[in-house]
Amino acid sequence: MEIALLIRILSSVLADASPLVIAGMGETICERAGVINLSLDGSIMLSAMSGFAVAYLTGNLLLGFLAAMVVGAVIALLIAFASITLRQDQVAVGFVLTLLGAELANFLGEPFVRRPGPRVPHMPIPFLRDIPVIGEIFFTHDILVYASILLIVLVWFWIFKTQAGLRLRGVGERPEAAFARGVNVNRLRYLYAVTGGALVGIAGAAYSLSVKLGWSEGHTLGNGWIALAIVIFGGWHPLRVAFGAYLFGALISLGSILQRSIPGVPTQVFQAAPFALMILVLLLVSGGALERLLSFFPPRMRRLVGEALRVAPPAALGKPFVTE
Amino acid sequence: MTYSQRLVNLLLGLAPIALALIFSTLVLVAAGAPPLEAYKHLLQGASESPAKIADVLVVWVPLVLCSAGLLFTFTAGLWNIGVEGQIIFGVIFATWVARNIYLPAILLLPLMIVAGMIGGALWGLLAGTLKVYGGVHEIFAGLGLNFVAITTNIWLIAKPWRPELGATMQGTDPFQPAAWLPRLAGLRLSPVSLLLALMAVVVVFFILRGTLWGLQLKAIGKNVRSAYLLGIATNRHMLLSFALCGALAGLAGVVQVSGVWGRDIPQISGGIGYLALLVTMLSGFRALGVAPVALFFAAIGVGAARLHLRMQLDPSLAGVLEAGLVLSVLLVAGLRARLLMPREG
Question: How far from the centroid of its chain's Cα atoms is residue A242's Cα?
Fold first, then answer.
């Protein structure tokens, strides 16, 4: 009985965290290349709306996802153009696009508010679903969830096991060195920013067409910021980013279970919890607070815990690359 | 400067406006609304009557207060996205005073103002502390704290401050009369709040322009490390800039709660904190630019309300126009730098 509940929870965490995973992977490759796409919250909002609207109007889910991808990619392209070609502040452009994306979604999405629309169909995998425990956790979802898990592996493999991944890390860590070895730094940055943006767009549609069905004003508010924080928590490493997304999802669903079993606690506590958690998690992996925390550990553990928690951004993150 | 350079300059000066207009026209067409009629309503909605102009000023006051506060943090090179939460903590502190302390207005109002400024400053300091001592980037600290502040306020309204009659989420009971800022007859506009906003702009202008502290803050904004090596107490200065920005945001909260609504409501901050970031960016981070830009934004905001009434267009069009304009300015500034600078290799 207890076990059955646990399995159900794990299964739903896997499903609910899938948009965060997809967006996290997109942002990871983008930031690995040295470009911060700060607009995630607005990108996800606008792509969630566009994906839903297009799927609703055409009745075609694939077109919905395609539209969402295009929206995410275009926003990322704008950031790349403004920061790489025009050398404007990435944070400034990203922040403005966050607001613009959200407002645009609310404005254009008005006719679609609370309309019942299409959803990504469930697709349990035959045979595999019948494996006890594992089958129910991993193989009873829709295609997005499977895709999100495959994406983690793919991004990890791409970054760490391929030549292209080496170049990707190069342009984010030491663009001068990569340039000297004949890599077109800015072209790669454009490429990964736009690809990452397209993934963020899919994440948006994953909300409105699967995890949090439909559209309403501020439908996905805050999720983009959480995805950005998870990328930092994950130290720009795809496996750790995915772990962060699932951990986050698990804590949130733990919260909603607690909410039901402890009725005295105000619901607002659970609404604010993801964002308090976001700050705590960043505090845990950031310089000052981490070093202070580590001083409480015995010396031998200090190194171990420190290595496990400490993260460092790509060295050239957010810095424009100019050839002299 | 040659004639052609001057022409390029002029065109580039107008380009952001043209770009923003093209963009918003496309958005209107996409929404199926006749653009010209929409623009007409937008302009008229903000200026057709004295009451409308007063409404614009009602929006202008908190926007100016927050934008002026943001000049401190922007000067120090900090992205204080937590203004929204700082407004709300100003609201919460001032509301507590209005509900629990009974004094004549002449004493109560200053007390509320001080309490609200302290509330905002503390919330700002919290974000600053997370940044300076915790190493959490101020964007995430501020943003997370915004959500915490909003839900705290909603909880206060839903539970401890719930009105006697009805348990709706409409807001608290109206304050005692002494806790209302005096208003102009028949309008929601309080002359005191106008005065406060103007004072804030002047004070911020002189602090940043004419004091040693302002100069040191600028040094920090240009390069934290060199400022530190020059012997500037960078941490303390950054914290103080957060506190001052928070105090002005808190003051904006007091104006909202005591001058406009006369009670605490869930949407009391209404995105002013985020809008103020756009205003400050568009003003080129200059104190004297903040007032006119905020006026323009306030007018768009009020005009959009009429669009909603007349053409059933969602009022978020205001945000689309404003953010679109700031984006256009950033893009054109980058283009200008590329076009006017001597070409590199």
Answer: 9
